Amino acid sequence: MLKFLKTRRNRLNAAREIDPVTLPNCQLIKGIERGSEDIDILPNGVAFISSGLKYPGLKSFAPDKPGEIFLMDLNEEKPRAVELRISRGFDLASFNPHGISTYIDKDDTVYLFVVNHPHQKSTVEVFKFVEDDNSLVHLKTIRHDLLISVNDIVAMGPDSFYATNDHYFSDFILMFLEMFLGLTWSNVVYYSPKEVKEVAAGFYSANGINISPDKKYIYVADILDHKVHVMEKHANWNLTHAKTLQLDTLVDNLSVDPDTGDIWTGCHPNGMKLFYSDPENLPASEVLRIQNILSEEPVVTRVYADDGSVLQGSSVASVHGGKLLIGTVFHRALYCEL
To answer: Which residue, among 227, 233, 246, has the nearest Cα to 186 in the 3D structure?
Structure first.
């Protein structure tokens, strides 16, 4: 039993404290008060932000309110968050958005894929972004037996994607037991209308997922193993392990700078604080930049770190044109000029 408890504390980095790393030009984003769990930025500087996640075992500042998708245009002199309208016919009351990913089709149509947890189930919602009136048109809801406990997603086409299942079980008690026992039953699934299959397995908790600019590699964050896995992508969509980067923090979502290939990630320095959410001992935030991950010696830089007094529970960091957006699981969001 003591061994189990020690292992759990190690997985959650329960003893870790961090020194602050500040950035000179940061401000909290007005209107985002209850989470900004994932952020995806289009090449033109338009950012989508998922907000209002209610996740088993984690705090929510508005448990009875449905989730939202915000938009920020980083080209504006003073970017602001605008809530996107969602088309009629979509069940907004149960909208519980988690990871997101965008895909731009050959005809410049922008698709937004959203991991959704209506009634604590897992679906993937596909929307079309209508820029003229800042709205999302709901196209389809995807459900599948292999999409059990979906955390994040990276779109591969207008109706295909890779997704991470952060747990093998969807029941909260079994999820907790899975984490407590340190089972490596978490996986990555490839979905298309023609084929759905497991393409990588053996993770403690597969979380953030993204793709390299050259489309050759898929990056997977294992939040409870403090690792980023580099997976080679094959023509049949299968993935094989290429390398692993060990870190000393709980790695959440992964964003990739399309110009440099750098990976930016929002992290939880101490997962125990995230789960217990004690007002006297707030969950901290940390942003890492990973350069040259495919090389023998990747460079990892702590770009931002806060003890929770400004930003609690950072889950994502995404950059565009010298601007940095930092999102959180259930708290606020930060806009910085680098």
So the answer is: 227
